[in-house]
Amino acid sequence: MTPHFVPPQQPTGGPSGKPGRKLGPIAESVGSTHRAWLEPLRSSFLASGMTISDMSAQTGWAKSKISELLRGTGLYPRWEITHSLLSLLGVPTWPMRRLWTSAAREARKKPEWIERCVEKQVLSAEDPPLDHGAFTELQADAYLAYATVFLSPREQAVRAVRDTFDILWLGWNDALASSDVVKYAWPVLRRTVMTRARHVDGRPELSDAAFDTIALRAATTSDEKFAQIEESVVLFATMSWLPDHQLDVMVLRHLRGMEPSEVADVLGVPIASVRSDERHAKHTLETALCTEQDSEGNPT
């Protein structure tokens, strides 16, 4: 079992050399998956007490290259230099390499380039902490059910869920230190999914979900199916504007058919909160749909 990641302790006597220049912020151009692995790497670097000069001396990489990597500037970094910094800082390399690979795809790197990079560093498979593995097994199905509502094809949803668990692995100590691991983890999944989902006017696109509803599957004629799709498109367009917590409850309850207790277990909130969010969301949707019907001259 791989031990929980603990940033390396600063040797007695404080950091070597001069303090060095303060590390700049992550570049705004950095993609969501790139940021997902870069942030914990930067945190480990800052917690280590080392300077970029120290890292350069111990890895052999130029200070400019290390600085670019830690800020996300320049070209997407090769796995070789990334792996060197991970090893020096004691960061688990197995989840990092998967996130690095996903981010390389996001950066439009060719598969041949990715393969050439990773084949230079042979890694032994690492097992996550046992409690992380148990958490993954417990939440994986629900996380995937949620992700497939927003991400298509299914492979994208599968990758988003896998990346979520890798991000949690890297920050597992923080998750355990929180008041509730389940509640801590849900925003990580949501952020991972939403940064990859299509958006319209700043809200997640739900139109694809109109083609996968219980009502549509129950329709028998072409006219019934067309009418159901039309109604669902309007409903889901309205649903996307719900507050985030209400949207999540409605997706899990009514698009994935989960019971209130199951939704509470996935989100890490009381059942009463789930019922309240569902009630308010339904009221908002009913009001919006009635207004839409009135504007078209239809009876309410």
Task: Report on this structure.
With 300 residues, the protein is mainly α. A hairpin with a 2-residue loop joins strand 1 (199-200) and strand 2. 65% of the residues lie in helices and 1% in strands. The radius of gyration is 23 Å and the shape is elongated. The protein has helices at 32-48, 52-59, 63-71, 79-89, 93-106, 111-119, 130-150, 154-170, 172-177, 181-194, 214-218, 222-239, 244-255, 260-267, 271-295, and strands at residues 199-200, 203-204. The protein has a two-stranded antiparallel sheet. The longest helix has 25 residues, at 271-295. It has two domains: 32-119, Orthogonal Bundle (434 Repressor (Amino-terminal Domain)); 130-295, Arc Repressor Mutant, subunit A, CATH 1.10.10. Helix 5 (93-106) crosses helix 8.
Number of strands: 2
N-to-C series of helices and strands: HHHHHHHHHHEEHHHHH
Structural class: mainly alpha
The CATH topology name of the largest domain reads Arc Repressor Mutant, subunit A
- Calculate Rg over CA atoms: 23 Å
The percentage of residues in β strands lies in under 5%
Outline: elongated
Mean pLDDT: 84
CATH homologous group name of the largest domain: Winged helix-like DNA-binding domain superfamily/Winged helix DNA-binding domain
Q: Please report the distance between the alpha carbons of the first and last residues.
A: 61 Å
**Percent of residues in helices:** 55-70%
The biggest sheet amounts to:
2 strands, antiparallel
Give the neighbour order of strands across the main sheet: 1-2
Work out the oligomeric state of the chains in this entry. Answer: single chain
Unreliable spans? 1-18, 214-221, 223-230
